[in-house]
């Protein structure tokens, strides 16, 4: 397995699929930039989801970052070709296990506040970034789904760690086991996101909130984030087991069938359900 972890990123120029703008002083706008595939995460982007936050943290000109997606999606989860490789190549699966863990670890360890502007569909790895943000602003027409059960693997990534804290155990179990989609108004109602706003203002609303945070006491804001993230950090064993079971599932026949069903645009017929 190659050494290609988050440490390979030293400056903003090192990122291939993230675009950076500075709309107002102290605020960095990060755009996930693979619109031709609905910003799905290939191996490179998956690493970038983890590596970007340490670069932001050492940039003294940035107080708050906002992350959104180019085009009509936030991020449609893992690139299907990458997911298919995970079902056949042990080394690829190990690499994605490491990178999926790094996304959660790096976002929870990041010092500066992160605001997500969920402008369209958010699934899988993209959803992890959207919901692990400290403030999440979701467009009315946007839809999100953890999606793992639809592929025939356990809900890993962020979900077992975060969803029960956000929307309660009963709803978390339902949405993670069914992989049903949740729209913006419902996500706000159940507490899965901070706020739902009309589609045309989702980015501007996120930027306005980021500007308010940037104008505040950096120590007060950053230390409050640090304190609140302890709720997730203390659940690290839950996250670790969920991610391990997800990756184990990719080596089984249900995941092979799940990928085939997505490619063929049909309902899956999981071997374990027969």
Shape: globular
SS content category: alpha/beta
What is CATH's topology name? 2-enoyl-CoA Hydratase, Chain A, domain 1
Q: Tell me the span between the first and last alpha carbons.
A: 36 Å
The CATH architecture would be Alpha-Beta Complex
Proportion of residues in helical segments: 40-55%
What would you report as the Rg, rounded to the nearest angstrom?
18 Å
Q: Please provide the ordered H/E string of secondary-structure elements.
A: EEHEEHHEEHEEHHHEHEHHHH
Which homologous superfamily in CATH is the superfamily? 2-enoyl-CoA Hydratase, Chain A, domain 1
Low-confidence stretches: none
- Tally of DSSP β-strands: 10
Strand content: 15-25%
Explain what you see.
The chain is an alpha/beta fold and 274 residues long. The protein has one domain (6-201, 217-273): Alpha-Beta Complex (2-enoyl-CoA Hydratase, Chain A, domain 1). Helix content is 50%, strand content 17%. It has helices spanning 43-57, 80-86, 90-109, 124-132, 148-151, 159-167, 169-178, 184-189, 202-215, 218-233, 236-250, 253-264; strands at residues 18-24, 26-32, 62-69, 73-76, 114-118, 121-123, 135-139, 143-145, 182-183, 195-197. The strands form 2 sheets. The chain has a 6-stranded mixed beta sheet, with helices on both faces. Helix 1 (43-57) runs parallel beside helix 3 (90-109) and helix 3 (90-109) runs parallel beside helix 4. The chain is globular, with a radius of gyration of 18 Å. The termini are far apart. The model has no long low-confidence stretch (mean pLDDT 95).
């Amino acid at each position: 397995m190659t050494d290609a972890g988050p440490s390979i990123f030293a400056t903003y120029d090192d990122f291939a699929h993230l675009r950076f703008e500075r709309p107002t002083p102290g605020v960095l706008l990060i755009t996930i930039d693979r619109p031709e595939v609905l910003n799905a995460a290939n191996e490179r982007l998956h690493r970038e989801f983890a590596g970007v936050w340490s670069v932001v943290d050492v940039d003294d000109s940035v107080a708050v970052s906002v992350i959104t997606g180019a085009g009509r999606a936030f991020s449609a989860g893992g690139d299907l070709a990458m997911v298919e490789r995970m079902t056949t190549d042990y080394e690829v699966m190990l690499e994605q296990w490491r990178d999926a863990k790094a996304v959660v670890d790096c976002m929870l360890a990041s010092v500066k506040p992160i605001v997500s502007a969920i402008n369209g569909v958010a699934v899988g790895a993209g959803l992890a970034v959207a919901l692990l943000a400290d403030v999440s602003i979701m467009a009315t027409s946007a839809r999100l789904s953890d999606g793992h059960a639809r592929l025939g693997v356990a809900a890993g990534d962020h979900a077992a760690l975060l969803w029960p804290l956000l929307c309660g155990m009963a709803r978390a179990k339902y949405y993670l086991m069914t992989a049903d989609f949740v729209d913006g108004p419902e996500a706000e109602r159940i507490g899965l996101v901070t706020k739902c706003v009309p589609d045309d203002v989702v980015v501007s609303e996120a930027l306005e909130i980021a500007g308010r945070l940037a104008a505040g006491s950096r120590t007060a804001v950053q230390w409050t984030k640090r304190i609140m993230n302890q709720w997730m950090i203390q659940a690290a064993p839950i996250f670790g087991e969920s991610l391990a079971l997800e990756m184990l599932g990719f080596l089984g026949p249900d995941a092979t069938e799940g990928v085939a069903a997505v490619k063929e645009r049909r309902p899956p017929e999981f071997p374990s359900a027969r």
